[in-house]
Design goal:
Radius of gyration: 28 Å
Shape: elongated
Order of helices and strands: EHEHEEEEEHEEEEEEHEEEHHHH
Bound molecules: manganese (II) ion
Number of strands: 16
Number of helices: 8
Strand content: 15-25%
């Protein structure tokens, strides 16, 4: 028996709202789901487990029609679906009355429910959300009956307000595989037993790393699982080192080359670090056009050469200001910031970027 485990597709979400590429992202989540279905056919999986949050919100009938159509294209795959906290079964949800294709089984009960698939020698335990939260530890004390059937638990959650889980209890609960949803980044929760599939396509900037689905193969009640990466784009966090010789143009080139190296299709959050020319304050918004850039955070510090400045301005305001931080210089982040901001104000009172540090200093000595 071969299965595919997916979760958190979040159809209907609109990632990167407000950015120029946002409109395409919503469609890409659908495209990722369609590729999962195509893979399920190609890999001839017997079972497709969907561990909640297939939709980002209550689905529309039109959207269920599209999903159901894709399910109907599965040649030999049974689909088992639960609702998560985002697409929970509120009374008006079309989920509750929808007529699915015959290869689709929904476990829409609010309590743990068991279904049997004798042709696959398989039992699946699962439950759905009827509210946004399930704070009760519903798995406490649950134990699957022992028999020759392969036992799968299909569940969405794992944090305090969404079905809190206990590893020891899950280990003792008698399941052969636990298909989890809720966390968007794929991760093994219990080795060889419980896995978060993650979202097939990343849904928000925090969904860094690889994305795809879990493929499982069951032989004589032993399960072998592997992760199949399939995302079209990634969210990446990158650090760009700024040096004293950088200026607006060279920094733009540095950021653009990071984007070119790691893929122009990806979305980036960039952090600038290092010591910059004190007269060059990066205008972070300028660099958003270097690629699909969500944010640029400036953590650079001005490269003040305290020893040189102290000697040069000895007995003067700037010299006395530096000396006020003591022999060893500033201690701690707050003092450091106070020193840098103070020196910037004293050395560059106009706040104008300077190409060559030192020239202004000569002219503006007090
Ligand atoms: Mn969720």
């Amino acid at each position: 028996m071969r299965f595919m485990h997916i979760a958190d597709v979040h159809l209907g979400a609109a990632p990167d709202h407000g950015y120029p590429w946002a409109k395409a992202r919503g469609k890409e989540l659908w495209e990722g789901f369609r590729r999962c279905i195509a893979d399920a056919n190609e890999k001839k999986v017997d079972l497709l487990l969907i561990a909640g949050d297939l939709f980002d919100r209550r689905p529309e009938i039109k959207e269920l029609n599209e999903v159901n159509y894709l399910f109907s294209t599965l040649e030999k795959t049974v689909v088992v679906l639960i609702a998560g906290n985002r697409d929970y079964l509120e009374p008006s949800s079309p989920y509750l009355t929808y007529q699915w294709n015959e290869n689709v089984i929904t476990i829409f009960s609010g309590q743990l429910e068991r279904i049997r698939l004798p042709e696959l020698k398989l039992e699946i335990y699962g439950m759905s959300y009827h509210h946004r939260e399930i704070p009760e530890p519903v798995m406490a004390g649950v134990c699957a009956k022992k028999d020759e059937y392969f036992k799968i638990l299909l569940l969405h959650g794992g944090d305090a307000s969404h079905i809190p889980l206990n590893k020891d209890e899950l280990l003792d609960a008698g399941f052969d595989y636990i298909a989890l949803g809720h966390l968007h980044n794929p991760q093994v929760y219990i080795r060889n037993l419980a896995v978060y599939a993650g979202a097939p396509e990343p849904v928000c900037a925090e969904d860094t790393g690889e994305h795809g689905y879990v493929l499982g193969e069951v032989q004589r009640k032993k399960v072998h699982i592997s992760f199949v990466e399939m995302e079209g784009r990634r969210y990446l966090e990158k650090t760009v080192e700024v040096t004293e010789s950088d200026n607006p143009y060279s920094l733009q080139e540095k950021i653009s080359s990071v984007v070119a190296r790691d893929g122009a299709q990806n979305m980036y959050r960039i952090t600038l670090t290092g010591e910059r020319d004190p007269g060059f304050v990066p205008q972070v918004r300028e660099y958003l056009k270097c690629g699909r850039i969500l944010s640029v955070t400036d953590q650079t510090v001005p490269a003040f050469h305290l020893d040189v400045l102290r000697k040069k301005y000895e007995g003067k305001l700037i010299g006395r200001f530096i000396e006020s931080f003591g022999e060893g210089g500033p201690t701690g982040v707050t003092e450091e910031k106070a020193l840098y901001y103070g020196l910037e104000a004293l050395l560059y009172p106009g706040g104008q970027p300077e190409k060559k540090p030192g020239r202004r200093e000569k002219n503006s000595g007090d």
